[in-house]
Amino acid sequence: MHTVLNVIGPVFGIVLLGFGLTRTGVLSAATSEGLTRFMFYVAVPAMLFRTFAATALPDSVPWAYIAAFYGASFVAFGLGMTLARWRWRWSRRDQGIGGLAAGYSNMVMLGFPLVITAFGESAALPLFILLALQSLLMFPLTTWVIEIYGNTGNTPRTGILATFGKLALNPVIASLLLGIGANLSGLEITGPLSSMLELIGAAAPACALVALGAGLAQYEIRGAIRESLGFVVLKSIIHPILVWAACLALDVAALWTQVAVVLAAMPTGINAFIFARNYDARIEVVSKTIVFSTLVSIVTVAALLHRFLNQGV
């Protein structure tokens, strides 16, 4: 347990620091937004590009690993839609938000610093493979549910192609693709450029965690409690169980299974709130889900790391 505390203590401690600095007024909403933008547009892309440009890529695509994680994620998404439809009687349009709240993990702000801290650099490749695919797979699905499946004829559609266009301009996705391109082409990142990317990328984990804490501090914990807790159960408990079972069924390697399960146990990602705000759909429920699932993840992730770091899969 001491090892686990050494891993999660600093990570969640920095989140708490960001939360406290914002609640006490040291960080304003504008400062929090600026930090988030720096993390999203500069620090994380620099880290991802440098890592993928230098990391030895697998000889073949790890289809079993991808299928295990995202097959389970799609199931969690469907369960979120089912809960929203049959339990809470949400409209078809809003069900897409429920699906995203149940199946979309906070990989960037919380997942990657925690996984790297827990498992070391050997976990970088399985981590970044899932990170690279999450938005590419989950965003178009959510957009289709909201705009096509949930369209009543009274709201405009942006379309799936437009969504893929936006994804191509996403700095996280773009940096991953550029890093892979540099790796495959044999381009070596050396000299001042490498040093600059290393310095900027080193700031990414701390910036991400402080930004997460600052963002959580801006959410209110009132109203929509029952709905939020329902999605928390799906995201924080059912999702990692599904991923673990799928990895075992598909004979995924031990370390890769551990990374996948820990990422599935991450709280609901901030992008679920961005979708909710963009479509003005169930903002209150999603914000509470993010807060509660973050709190629950402290316990679930500690339990998982205790199991993985001390006893194996």
The assembly state of the depicted protein chains is: single chain
So how many helices? 14
Helical residues, percent: over 70%
Overall number of domains: 1
As a whole number of angstroms, the C-alpha radius of gyration is: 19 Å
Q: For the residues shown, what is the average pLDDT? A: 85
Tell me what portion of residues adopts beta-strand conformation. Answer: under 5%
Structural class: mainly alpha
Alpha carbon gap, first and last residue = 16 Å
Question: Mind describing the biggest β-sheet?
Answer: none
CATH topology: Na+/H+ antiporter like fold
| Total number of beta strands | 0
Shape estimate = globular
Give your account of this protein's structure:
By secondary structure, the protein is mostly helical. The chain has one domain (2-311): Na+/H+ antiporter like fold (Up-down Bundle), CATH 1.20.1530. It contains 14 helices and no strands. The longest helix has 29 residues, at 283-311. It is globular and about 55 Å long. It starts with a helix and ends with a helix. The mean pLDDT is 85.
